[in-house]
């Protein structure tokens, strides 16, 4: 299965939203998406998505990195498979990323290309990506992104749509967090699944205090209670002080960082974001290591529909025993780019049998949201 990319394109998309989306450190007033299309010498193509939620202007910046810096590193070169291209790009971008102090944006661009190459390869084979990678199509999902303002209203809507688990944003005020969790627990019931995400809000001391307060709610996990780059000893200390499992990984990058988190014993849930680092080539290896470490693999995603499809195919390819994340807030760039027939039923999603990630973005929809650069 040779690959020889001849054209790599970026599409910056922006969609207005009625209600801002808030977490503990930022507010989104619109939704953005950065899609990448890779076309091979034989006309085969694949689509990926590059993480670009923050800061404002991130999508345009990463589009420039893609088209002017990273794409020329593989255009016209021949690779045996997507993973070989990923390894090449990881090596080729190392020094440029160090030179400008931007290892994150470079990793995100490489990740989006990797997703597109795997989509291309599966489309060429005529197989859905989950099957081509040896997975099963049925995955468990939860509704994320419930904000601090009466989240039970959105949770009730999501339960009616077929979800059985929700994740709440915390890290605002203790009284607000606890009030919201009581409302959600009352709505979902004692046996339902509720997670929380602090978005790196607390110091270790504040996180220890918060974890003890939150233990009473029987949470599935506390996500990113402290900054992702805190020494692993601090994560281990927090884990020892809490009955609730800790989750992290979306803001870790590379085999070393994620591997260290897996073997530390601090995390019981690992959440790499395939559009931030690794794509399928890197994150499938992390999924294997997670199984060995008896850590639950739950890929992170907050963005458009192409990236969501990729995250769910990644979960399915990993064995599908973790959770897939689906943002509960309205986002046209998510719903209009998902495969037809996509739905949640009894807390699960069955992925499409169509080739690759299951859908080719509609050109008229792309044009509707396309941002000039």
Specify the biggest β-sheet.
9 strands, mixed
Estimate what percentage of residues fall within beta strands.
15-25%
**Extended strand count:** 12
Uncertain segments are none
Q: Looking at CATH, which topology of the largest domain would you report? A: TIM Barrel
Shape: globular
The count of domains is 2
Q: Using only CA atoms, what is the Rg?
A: 20 Å
N-to-C series of helices and strands: EEEHHHHHEHEHEHEHEHEHEHEHEH
The CATH C-level name of the largest domain is Alpha Beta
* The CATH homologous superfamily of the largest domain: Enolase-like C-terminal domain
Helix content: 40-55%
Q: State the end-to-end CA separation.
A: 35 Å
Number of helices: 14
Q: What value does the average pLDDT take?
A: 95
CATH architecture of the largest domain: Alpha-Beta Barrel
**Backbone structural class:** alpha/beta
Structure description:
The two termini are 35 Å apart. The protein contains 14 helices and twelve strands. The mean pLDDT is 95. Strand 5 (165-169), helix 7 and strand 6 (193-197) form a beta-alpha-beta unit. The strands form two sheets. Strands 4, 5, 6, 7, 8, 9, 10, 11 and 12 form a nine-stranded mixed β-sheet that branches. Helix 1 crosses helix 4, helix 2 (82-92) runs antiparallel to helix 4 (103-125) and helix 8 packs parallel to helix 9. The chain is globular. It has 373 residues and is of the alpha/beta class. It folds into two domains: 5-126 and 362-369, 2-Layer Sandwich (Enolase-like, domain 1); 131-350, TIM Barrel.
């Amino acid at each position: 299965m040779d690959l020889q990319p001849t054209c790599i394109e970026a599409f910056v998309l922006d969609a207005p939203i009625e209600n801002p989306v808030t977490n503990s450190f930022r507010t989104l007033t619109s939704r953005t998406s950065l899609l990448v299309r890779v076309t091979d010498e034989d006309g085969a193509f694949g689509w990926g998505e590059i993480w670009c939620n923050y800061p404002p202007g991130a999508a345009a910046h990463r589009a420039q990195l893609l088209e002017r810096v990273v794409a020329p590193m593989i255009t016209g070169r021949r690779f045996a498979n997507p993973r070989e291209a990923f390894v090449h790009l990881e090596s080729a971008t190392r020094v440029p990323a160090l030179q400008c102090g931007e290892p994150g944006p470079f990793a995100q661009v490489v990740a989006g290309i990797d997703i597109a190459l795997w989509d291309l390869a599966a489309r060429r084979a005529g197989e859905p990506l989950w099957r081509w990678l040896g997975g099963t199509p049925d995955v468990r999902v939860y509704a994320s992104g419930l904000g601090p303002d009466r989240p039970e209203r959105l949770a009730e809507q999501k339960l009616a749509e077929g979800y059985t688990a929700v994740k709440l944003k915390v890290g605002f005020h203790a009284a607000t967090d606890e009030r919201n969790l009581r409302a959600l627990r009352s709505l979902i019931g004692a046996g339902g699944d509720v997670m929380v995400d602090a978005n790196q809000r607390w110091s270790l001391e504040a996180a220890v205090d918060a974890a003890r307060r939150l233990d009473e709610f029987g949470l599935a996990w506390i996500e990113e209670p402290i900054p992702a780059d805190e020494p692993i000893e601090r994560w281990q200390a927090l884990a020892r002080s809490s009955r609730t499992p800790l989750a992290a990984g979306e803001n870790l990058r590379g085999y070393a960082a994620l591997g260290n988190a897996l073997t530390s014993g601090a995390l019981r849930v690992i959440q790499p974001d395939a559009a931030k680092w690794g794509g399928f080539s890197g994150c499938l290896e992390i999924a294997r290591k997670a199984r060995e470490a008896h850590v639950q693999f739950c890929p992170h995603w907050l963005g458009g529909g192409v990236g969501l499809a990729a995250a769910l195919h990644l979960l399915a390819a990993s064995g599908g025993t973790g959770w897939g994340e689906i943002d509960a807030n309205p986002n046209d760039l998510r719903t209009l780019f998902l495969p037809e027939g996509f739905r949640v039923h009894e807390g699960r999603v069955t992925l499409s049998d169509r080739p690759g990630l299951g859908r080719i973005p509609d050109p008229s929809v792309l044009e509707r949201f396309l941002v000039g650069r």
